[in-house]
Amino acid sequence: MIPELGHFALIVALCVALVQGVLSLAGAHLRRPSWIAVARPAAKAQAVLIVTAFVCLSTAFVQNDFSVLYVTQHSNSLLPLQYRLAAVWGGHEGSLLLWVLMLALWTLAVAVFSKQLPEAMVARVLGVLGLVAAGFLLFILLTSNPFERLLPGAEDGSDLNPLLQDPGLIIHPPMLYMGYVGFSVAYAFAVSALLSGQLDAAWARWSRPWTTAAWCFLTLGIALGSGWAYYTLGWGGWWFWDPVENASFMPWLVGTALLHSLAVTEKRGSFKNWTVLLAIAAFSLSLLGTFLVRSGVLTSVHAFATDPKRGIFILLFLVVVIGTSLALFAWRAPKVGLGGRFGLLSRESLLLTNNVLLVVACASVLLGTLYPMVIDALGAGKLSVGPPYFNSVFAPLMIPALFLMGVAPFARWKQASVAELARTLRWAFLAAATVGVIAPFFFGTWKPLVALSLLLVAWIVLATLLNFVGRVQATRAGGSFVGAAIKQPRSFFAMHVAHLGIAVFVVGVTMVNGYQAEKDVKMEVGDSVTVGGYTLRFNGVHTQQGPNYMAVVGDLDLLKDDRLLRAMNPEKRNYVSSGSPMTEASIDTGLFRDVYVSLGEPIDKARPEDAWAVRVYYKPFVDWIWGGCVLMAFGGLLAITDRRYRRHAAPVEVAALAQKA
Amino acid sequence: MNRFLWPLIGFVVLVVLLAIGLRLDPHDVPSPLVGKQAPMFSLEKVGAPAQNFSPQEMRGKVWLLNVWSTWCVSCRQEHPVLVEMAKNKALTLVGLNYKEVRGDGAFDMDKIAPDAERELALKRAQAWLKTHGDPYTLSALDLDGRVGIDYGVYGVPETYVIDKAGLIRFKQTGPITPDVFSGKILPLVAELSK
Amino acid sequence: MTRRILASLILVLALLAGAALAKEAAPLAPDEATEQRLIAISSELRCLVCQNESLAGSNAELAYDLRREIREMIKDGKSDAEIRDFLVRRYGDFVLYRPPLKGVTLALWFGPALLLLGGLAGLILYLRRRDKVVKDVPLSVGEQREADRLLKIQGPQQ
Questions:
Q1: Using one digit for the tens of pLDDT, what is the confidence trace for A38-47?
Q2: At CA A89, angle to CA A83 and CA A90, rounded to 5?
Q3: Which of C45, C47, C48 to mutate to test the interface with B (most CBs of B within 10 A)?
Q4: Which CATH number fits domain C32-100: 3.20.20.190, 1.10.760.10, 1.10.8.640, 1.20.1250.20?
């Protein structure tokens, strides 16, 4: 009964979404207030319906209802409750429902937090979101119904993939989808602006906090996925350039470009067309990612069970959503004004350069991801494009981008001067170069790439500090430094925190790539192995019964300078219902290094109590990779909470905008 | 020309490529050996131990080399098709028994001596052919899978069509279905036999 | 009771023996130099069985066999290029995670550089042309109106 209720809720939600889409857009176009008034209630009703459907599916999982096909495929009666809930989005159908749920929640948020916007604008935005939701609901109902019954029901389910039975996987997909789907709001704002023909600074202002919020979620979502791969896959890698990772990274790159471009559009009224195009592109890339993961056109680790019907549907959906908006863009863009004048070297032009770099980086990732398919489609053979390609192509593009990050905050709007920038920044650059050249000596071997990266890191940090101090000094007007510092707008902090996040991230990547150490050893009881100054002593193994698995647990001691730091217990699990093995690494996390141990196979299978193959890593600064991402997201959070977005804030910025006008 | 049309044009090209890509199988890896000389080997025959078989003996004939094993589930599924095929006297089907013992996860290879492995493999292969029917003119025993590597075997069963000059003309990865047999293999063999 | 004491005694002795035996663990592969080259080569090769893993990381049967072949080739003094060629002859370019530079991959390898140059050239052309076209009016009339309206909308909420 409950699954049928969920199914029914989805059908009604589809109808409501269609009404929301058609009536709101038509109402805004024909200026009919009564139609426009439908938008908000429809959005709310839709959220209620989809939450209902989602709760129904979750209930089926909690109650182990194995008469529901999807539950049977992705759960098992032995599965602990938290993983049964996470299993709701453990497969294609449920993860699509999660997509739709996120979309409904974003739509609801727009409906609730847009009181200060013109009604027609809100109606258009909600209308566009409604149509997007209708497409996805149709997709679920026609090709991927999670409520499909299995009659007669199964005795038990076939279990959730053990790789997914992990706390990280409980929050990673919702975060990632919040990001993906969040770009739909930026997209809806862009399309509404194109529809209305009012592409202006106000539009940029409204759209900016939404875009930033989506970007924060996407940043955290990607970081969580990467962290999860690091500790579950057993060999300590954190990014593999798998097509599915690329599918999430491309919207991030374009989204980052969009954030910067929106800043210019809001502040200076320039790049409006470009900004709109980026907003369309960010969401289009999210949709393209969905297509790539779910259609089976690429070989990927995370690919869902594929069905050609689904591929065709999403492709058609892409054609409608992206095709219509790009056609709309081609129609409206020529009439849009160019905005304020600025010099060849100015804050505007530097931000535009940053945009070019990010978009080229995204295009390169897209090229590498799709290339095997394109070559195959052209009948020119089969090939693979893997990490070596992406690493060699991506890194060179990031070097100028990192360099510009130091400069751009100093460049004045409208017109900057090379001489002035050079004068302000020359000492910072010299100091950064010194750090870059000297720092690698402290970690052992001097490596040119490490030196270059650390130079850029020092450059960003110093430039950020200099910029911060300079701005505070300029505004302090005789008052105390700290007093003036905390009075700076949050958006100013936001920029610097996010930029420092990048610097922290780069430190992590550089140090791990440059100085990680690895040992593969055969350990008998009492044996020890030393890596990166840390010693691990093997005391044997014992077996342990988990809720739905049997584990062999290694007993190791971690020592530094003969002092016992802690016990480490890597596991080798065997899941009962699927029979699949899993490696659980044991990690000693530290601010400046991780020690990572994973258990291989027993040397002699007949005598597993004797000796084991053990893999040990020393990974300097690895947690900075995710720390950097958290800082970036925190920067985004600061930007959203800037006072000009708070409804009761002083209209200082608005006045400034009007003043400019 | 409206330059704002370029994004749309780019997108249309992308969609066309994606639509073509949808009809392709990314997992299917065509063999670079097609059109090349079939790699040489000399391996013991399953049916007549102590005698060796070499592809050289097949010069002047069109023949099929089918890679199989008793532990391979898809081979069991394919086998009736092969037995049916063998009724057609125009076809010469040679089997390559691939890693009979060490490919089967059930054995701990450190505990099995090379001689014992050979004995075991012969026994298993012969018994299996007896119960399920023997479609092969002969089968060669590739104990360690080295010949398999030379042929680029990566998923048993695999089948190669080899022409009179010893060139590989076609490779089927995965089981031969009746469709593949009547649609591809049979016409190809007929043409090559002319 | 005595048996238990005896058992604990044996345990203690065993532990002592264990401590006495404590030694540096032996590397899994006897020949570390070969192993390192093996990892370097095979991590840039794709495993054909589970196609999302490198040959270095895969646990598939075939991956073990191929690693064994590569090890032997290293011992025979083959170069990295010869080893890769060995695999490409059998499985095609599909096994290479780093696609070789040839006709069909020109766009792949030079695409990003061309995009960057094109992007930067486009940017400079755009900025130049824009500089000529735009008059020094920061916001258009429409935008001015919009900004005013925004001010009006937000104003009363104070």
A1: 999 999 999 9
A2: 65
A3: C48
A4: 1.10.8.640
